[in-house]
Amino acid sequence: MPLTRDTPLTGLPGVGPARGKKLEKLGLRALGDVLDHLPQRYEDRREQYALGDAPVDRPCCVSAVVAETPRVSYVRRGLSLVKIKAVDSTGTVHITFFNQDYIREAVRRGESYIFFGVVERQGNLFAMTNPVFEREGTARTTGLIMPVYPLTAGISNNLLAGIARRAVDECLDGLPEVLPARLRKEHRLCQTQFARKNIHFPDDFEALAIARRRLVFEELFVLTCGLAQLKDRRSAGEGRPVEGSPEDFAALLPFAPTTAQRRAMDDMAADLRSGRAMNRLVQGDVGSGKTAVAAFGAWAAAKNGLQCALMAPTELLAEQHARTMEALLSPAGVRVALLTGSVKGREKKALLSALEAGEIDLVVGTHALFSQGVEYKDLGLVIADEQHRFGVAQRSALAEKGGAVPPHILVMSATPIPRTLALIIYGDLDVSVIDELPPGRFPVTTLLVGEDKRARMYGFVRKQVGEGRQVYIVCPAVEENGGGWEDGPGMDLKAVTAYAAQLRERVFPELRVGFVHGRLKAREKEDVMSAFHRGELDILVSTTVIEVGVDVPNASLMIVENAERFGLSQLHQLRGRVGRGKHQSWCVLVTASRSETARERLKALCATGDGFQIAEEDLRLRGPGDFFGKRQHGLPQLKVADFAADMELLKEARQAAQELIAADPELKKPSHRLLKKKVRELFDENAELFN
Ligand code: ADP
Ligand code: MG
């Protein structure tokens, strides 16, 4: 019976029900699935050498005749050796296999074999340990670039490679082509058959690169087509008309908005008035004044009788936002409330019923805002602040809270997301950029210091406080017990609390030192924070809870202990806590690390204040995992593409996708039929993320 892509793997020789189960663990059921199971690396097993010429530093193939019957010896329980002596025209090689007794039967004296492994030289003698081997003339795993697959227990690479070989040999004919011919030509992409064949069994590394490029493009193209469609449909979706003039709003502000802030508000005003749902991202570096822009939205919604929910990533930040909004908007009659996890009991009940009755116009909180039991009378606008993880999925879930007509959505983000990632995560949003800081700001001076400067640094703290300024000292949450950062389990708080106590009692007994960390009760945290805010504390020692958004313009010095433990973007965020007022500000990175790479990284931060550049550097050095944990961005996991390495191709694929969707929004053309199917499959596979 001919094999097809639908042939179940359990129908293949050598794959019984037991192996079938194990293959299923890898997501492999039918032969066609194996075409999508891509190698994680390759072993170059092409070159064959005579023993005398074999390189000593890397594995290679040698062809040799087995000269004696293999011998097995049992060294001790659990350790046996099979020894084989083989010869070619240039020498003799002694080959040892550990714990592979079957080899005694598998290898015959007088026959010729190919061995792949490192050839060690001992004088005139050669030796190999545990090489790959096969009979000359039946070679299947030598003499080629061998794919190395992700495996699971009980499934060998040879088995998988064998299956992949059959899939490639017998199932590629008639493999449907997702990418229209015109597009392939325009972007110099090979055909799908060539790509599939060469990603598994490349003829050479050039062919592999060509194959990979096509598959990466295809993957990113399908994804960005889906996002472009999503954006298309969203912006076609009905939205509540909201009238509001940025000019009228500006009168409420204690300062004149910058041109960039004004532009963002104008963009929003146009969205809100359009009768379609707003889906906008406001991007601006720390301190660029995004809060005022958000306040404009809340004010406009309230004026039009709609409710607004403002979501912050931490309780601390939610509390601060609630204070700011209250101060700014209550004179205009906007009723502001705070809802976080620590609002409980009667207070919470009253708040929820006021919300449902429409007696609250703006509710500020954490993700508690969208938990069960929170009902809105008429939710018209959702604002998400500094929510790197507020991806497509979460936004879609929100669209449902608004009843028949989805609420307007505004996402605000500082810059630590590299542009390329933003294109994907926020690929379905319109973007306004605030590329200007409020006037009168000095750039923050950043210094890298070692332990030897500690005393001088403490002196500088006293000097700043003497001039009336305030100081942050941030320590990493120590992970001695293997727990996560900050709020993770097992975090050792002692180190941080002990350090704060030491500062308070021994180093700065004359100063007012406060302390916050993630384990304090919300009430306690807020007490300390607001004391610092009111200037009743000189120094605030903290873990990274103050990372995002906290605003104390009088603070002029940020000290980060063990700076090498932080990502660059995180440090940039921390640095953004100072330089928010009219005072010259400093950020001092303390490290005892002698690692040259660690110091280079930190120096890069001293050299630039450009959040975009720092984010790109972070992506290059540490990969996308720093920006979001696995899958937390709410997008399908990429199989081939690599966010850091494939940025250029991402831009190219996205551009192509946008053009294609603009020309054929519903992918109705016959030449787009398969693409449409692929997009739907991708978004269906991740239905919980997208619907
Ligand atoms: P971020 O973009 O980091 O959220 P904020 O909205 O917290 O920035 O603003 C940072 C500080 O700058 C706040 O103290 C805010 O009051 C102030 N600010 C914002 N816009 C202006 C402006 N146009 N002129 C003067 N100060 C401003
Ligand atoms: Mg902010």
What is this entry, summarized?
With 691 residues, the chain is an alpha/beta fold.
Describe what you observe in this structure.
With 691 residues, the protein is an alpha/beta fold. It has 23 helices and 24 strands. Strands 2, 3, 4, 5, 6, 7, 8, 9 and 10 form a nine-stranded mixed beta sheet that branches. The chain has a seven-stranded parallel beta sheet with strand order 14-15-13-16-17-12-18, sandwiched between helices. A hairpin with a 2-residue loop joins strand 4 and strand 5. Helix 9 (259-273) packs parallel to helix 10. The longest helix has 32 residues, at 205-236. The chain is globular. The two termini are 41 Å apart. Bound molecules: adenosine-5'-diphosphate and magnesium ion. Adenosine-5'-diphosphate is lined by residues 255, 257-258, 261, 284, 286-292, 414, 438, 549, 551, 553, 580.
Give the arrangement of secondary structure elements:
Blueprint: H1 17-25, H2 31-35, E1 41-44, E2 48-49, E3 60-66, E4 71-76, E5 79-88, E6 91-98, H3 103-106, E7 112-117, E8 120-122, E9 125-129, E10 132-135, E11 145-148, H4 157-170, H5 181-186, H6 192-200, H7 205-236, H8 246-250, H9 259-273, E12 279-284, H10 290-303, E13 307-311, H11 315-329, E14 336-339, H12 345-356, E15 362-365, E16 379-385, H13 392-399, E17 408-413, H14 419-425, E18 430-434, E19 445-449, H15 454-466, E20 470-474, H16 494-507, E21 513-516, H17 522-533, E22 539-542, E23 555-560, H18 568-575, E24 586-590, H19 596-607, H20 611-622, H21 647-663, H22 673-685, H23 687-690
Parallel strand pairs: 2-3, 6-9, 12-17, 12-18, 13-15, 13-16, 14-15, 16-17, 19-24, 20-22, 20-23, 21-22, 23-24
Antiparallel strand pairs: 1-11, 3-5, 3-7, 4-5, 5-6, 7-10, 8-9
The structure holds adenosine-5'-diphosphate and magnesium ion.
